[in-house]
C-alpha cells in the first residue's frame, strides 16, 4: 500500500512537472530549498511569540511577586528563545542566498543561448534585457518579498492567539487584516497596468537612444542632433509622466498603509486599555496584545510595501518564460567528420516576422568545393538573406539546406564553426587584440593568424603598429580605415581551415589594391578546394567567378557558368537596345 502510494505520488509529481514551462520546471527543482526556508520560517514565527509571552510574565508575574529570581529565569529563557529565532532567520536568509546563486548558475547559460538565438534575424527583438530580468527575478525570490509570503500563513495563528486573549482583540485584528489585504489588492489593481506601460516606455526610449548613439558620427556631421534631441525629449517626457503616475499611485497606497498601521497600533492599545478598565484583561496582556497585533499584520504590511517589486518580478518571469519558450534548448547534434564544403539549397523559402511576402522564394542552388559562386542582383533582392540561409543562421527557413548532403541544422554548431567562414555586410569587431579578432576570439594560432592576414594583404599594415598583432582593437579602430577593418573581418573569415566561405560584399570598402588582394585570396581558396559564395554589387569579382547567380525579388533569375551567364546578359542587353532604338527612330523621323 505504501509503495503504491509512493509510486502514485511520484507519477503525479512527474506529470505535473512535465506540464510546466521550462522556467517553472527549473524553479520547481528548488522546492526542497524553499521547504527548508518554510521550516525555518515556522521556527522563527513561533518564537516571535517570545516577546509577547515575556511581557505577560514580567507584568503579570514578576511585578506582582517582586521575585528577582523569577525575572532572571524568565529573561534567560527569553534570551535563549530569541537566540534560536535569530538563528532560524539567519539560516533561512542563508538558504535563500545560496538558492539565488544556484538559480543564476542554472539559468544564466540557458538565457544567454536563448538571447543569442533571439538576436538572429532582422525582426527579432534584442534580448539584452534578459539578464536584467533574471537579476530582478532572483533578487525578489531571495529577498524580503518572498519572506513576506512565508510569514503570511502565520497571520491567522497570531490572530488566534489574540482571540484567546480576548475576542474583541481578535476581531479588531481581523478587521485591520481585511483592510490591509484590501489595500494590497487595490495597490495591485492600481499599479499593474501603469507599471507595465512604464517599462514599455523605458525600453522604447532606451532602444531609440542606443540606435542614435551608434550613428553619432552621421548625426554630428549632418547637424541632425537638434531634431533627434527633440524626438528623444518627447519620449523622455512621456517616460517621466508615466513614472510620476506610477509613483503617485504607489505613494498613495503606502500612505494609506501607514495610516492603517498607525491606527491599528493605537486602537489595539486603546481596546486593551478598555478591557483592563473593565477588568477583562491584565495590564501585561494589554501591552502584549498591542505588540502581537503589530507582528500579526507585519507580513501584510510588508506585502503592500514590496508589491511593486512583486509586479516587476512577475513581469520579468513572464518575459523570461516567453523567451525560453520561443527559443528551446538546442538538441546536441551528432559529431561528424570534417565537411568538404558542398552546399546544396533545394526549394528554400525564407520568411521574416511581420512581412507578408517571403524574402526568398523557391531557391535552388548548388556550390561545389573548388568553385567560386558570385551572387549579384539589385538591392532588396534577397542576396544577404541567401548568405545567412547558406550558413544556417536565418531563423525562419523552409526547404532543404544541405552541407555534404546532410541538413545544416543536424551539425554540431560548435564543431562546425571552424569549418565555416563568414564576412557580413556590417563589420563588427570584438573587444580584444587584432590577433584575437582574427582568431575568432579563441587562443590565437600565430602562424594561422599571420597566414590569414597575409591572404587579405593586411600583414604589413599590422606590423607598422607599435604592438603589432597585440594591438587592442579599441586602439587600432582609430588607426584602421573602413577598408582595413573589412580586411580584418575577412581575415577572420579565412582563419583556420574553413571549407565553406560566405562573403557578403567583401569589396564594398576596398580600394584597387585591396580588391586585387581579395581576388588573389579567392584564387588561393579555389585552388585549395574550398567552397566560396560571394555576394557582390561590383563586377570586379566576376574575374575569378566560376558560376554566376542573378537574383531579383527573392528569386534566382539566371544562374550558370560565368561565361554562359555573361553571354546571355550581353545578348539580352543587345536585344533590349535594338528594340528601344527601333521604337525611337520613327518618332525622330
What key attributes describe this structure?
disordered C terminus; four-stranded antiparallel β-sheet; disordered N terminus; Rossmann fold; ABC transporter transmembrane region fold; 589 residues; six-stranded mixed β-sheet; 2 domains; alpha/beta
Account of the 3D structure:
By secondary structure, the protein is an alpha/beta fold. 65% of the residues lie in helices and 10% in strands. The chain contains 22 helices and ten strands. Strand 4 and strand 5 (406-407) form a beta hairpin. Helix 5 (68-118) packs parallel to helix 13 (307-326). Residues 1-16 and 584-589 have low confidence and may be disordered.
Number of helices: 22
Strand content: 5-15%
Helix content: 55-70%
Structural class: alpha/beta
Mean pLDDT: 80
Q: What is the CATH superfamily classification of the largest domain?
A: ABC transporter type 1, transmembrane domain
Molecular shape: elongated
Contiguous uncertain segments of 5+ residues: 1-16, 584-589
Second CATH tier, the architecture of the largest domain? Up-down Bundle
Amino acid at each position: 500500500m505504501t509503495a503504491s502510494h509512493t509510486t502514485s505520488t511520484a507519477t503525479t509529481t512527474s506529470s505535473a512537472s512535465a506540464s510546466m514551462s521550462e522556467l517553472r520546471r527549473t524553479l520547481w527543482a528548488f522546492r526542497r530549498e524553499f521547504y527548508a526556508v518554510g521550516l525555518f520560517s515556522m521556527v522563527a514565527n513561533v518564537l516571535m511569540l517570545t516577546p509577547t509571552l515575556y511581557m505577560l510574565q514580567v507584568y503579570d508575574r514578576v511585578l506582582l511577586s517582586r521575585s528577582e529570581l523569577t525575572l532572571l529565569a524568565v529573561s534567560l529563557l527569553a534570551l535563549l528563545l530569541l537566540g534560536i529565532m535569530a538563528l532560524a532567520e539567519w539560516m533561512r536568509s542563508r538558504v535563500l542566498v545560496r538558492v539565488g546563486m544556484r538559480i543564476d548558475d542554472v539559468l544564466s547559460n540557458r538565457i544567454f543561448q536563448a538571447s543569442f538565438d533571439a538576436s538572429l534575424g532582422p525582426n527579432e527583438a534584442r534580448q539584452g534585457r534578459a539578464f536584467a530580468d533574471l537579476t530582478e527575478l532572483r533578487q525578489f525570490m531571495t529577498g524580503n518579498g518572498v519572506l513576506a509570503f512565508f510569514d503570511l500563513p502565520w497571520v491567522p495563528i497570531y490572530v488566534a492567539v489574540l482571540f484567546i486573549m480576548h475576542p474583541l482583540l481578535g476581531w479588531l485584528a481581523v478587521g485591520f487584516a481585511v483592510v490591509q489585504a484590501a489595500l494590497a489588492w487595490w495597490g495591485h489593481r492600481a499599479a499593474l497596468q501603469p507599471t507595465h506601460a512604464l517599462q514599455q516606455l523605458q525600453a522604447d526610449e532606451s532602444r531609440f537612444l542606443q540606435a542614435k548613439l551608434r550613428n553619432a558620427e552621421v548625426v554630428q556631421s549632418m547637424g541632425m542632433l537638434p531634431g533627434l534631441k527633440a524626438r528623444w525629449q518627447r519620449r523622455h517626457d512621456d517616460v517621466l509622466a508615466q513614472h510620476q503616475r506610477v509613483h503617485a499611485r504607489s505613494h498613495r497606497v503606502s500612505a494609506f498603509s501607514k495610516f492603517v498601521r498607525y491606527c491599528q497600533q493605537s486602537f489595539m492599545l486603546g481596546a486593551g486599555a478598555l478591557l483592563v478598565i473593565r477588568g477583562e484583561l491584565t495590564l501585561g496582556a494589554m501591552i502584549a496584545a498591542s505588540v502581537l497585533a503589530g507582528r500579526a499584520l507585519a507580513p501584510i504590511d510588508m506585502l503592500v510595501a514590496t508589491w511593486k517589486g512583486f509586479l516587476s518580478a512577475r513581469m520579468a518571469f513572464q518575459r523570461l518564460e516567453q523567451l525560453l519558450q520561443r527559443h528551446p534548448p538546442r538538441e546536441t547534434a551528432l559529431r561528424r567528420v570534417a565537411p568538404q564544403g558542398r552546399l546544396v539549397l533545394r526549394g528554400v523559402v525564407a520568411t521574416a516576422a511581420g512581412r507578408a511576402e517571403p524574402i526568398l522564394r523557391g531557391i535552388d542552388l548548388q556550390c561545389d568545393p573548388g568553385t567560386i559562386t558570385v551572387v549579384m542582383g539589385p538591392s532588396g533582392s534577397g542576396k544577404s538573406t541567401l548568405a545567412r540561409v547558406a550558413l544556417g543562421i536565418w531563423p525562419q527557413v523552409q526547404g532543404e539546406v544541405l552541407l555534404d548532403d546532410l541538413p545544416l541544422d543536424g551539425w554540431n554548431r560548435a564543431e562546425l564553426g571552424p569549418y565555416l567562414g563568414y564576412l557580413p555586410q556590417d563589420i563588427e569587431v570584438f573587444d580584444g587584440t587584432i590577433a584575437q579578432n582574427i582568431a575568432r576570439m579563441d587562443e590565437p594560432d600565430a602562424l594561422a593568424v599571420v597566414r590569414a592576414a597575409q591572404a587579405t594583404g593586411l600583414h604589413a599594415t599590422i606590423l607598422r603598429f607599435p604592438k603589432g598583432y597585440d594591438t587592442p582593437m579599441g586602439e587600432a579602430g582609430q588607426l584602421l580605415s573602413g577598408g582595413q577593418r573589412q580586411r580584418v573581418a575577412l581575415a577572420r573569415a579565412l582563419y583556420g581551415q574553413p571549407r565553406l566561405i560566405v562573403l557578403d560584399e567583401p569589396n564594398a570598402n576596398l580600394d584597387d589594391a585591396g580588391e586585387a588582394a581579395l581576388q588573389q585570396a579567392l584564387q588561393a581558396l579555389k585552388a585549395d578546394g574550398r567552397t566560396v559564395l560571394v555576394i557582390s554589387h561590383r563586377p570586379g569579382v566576376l574575374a575569378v567567378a566560376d558560376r554566376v547567380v542573378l537574383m531579383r525579388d527573392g528569386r534566382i533569375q539566371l544562374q550558370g557558368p560565368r561565361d554562359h551567364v555573361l553571354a546571355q546578359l550581353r545578348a539580352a542587353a543587345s536585344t533590349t537596345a535594338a528594340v528601344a532604338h527601333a521604337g525611337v527612330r520613327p518618332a525622330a523621323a
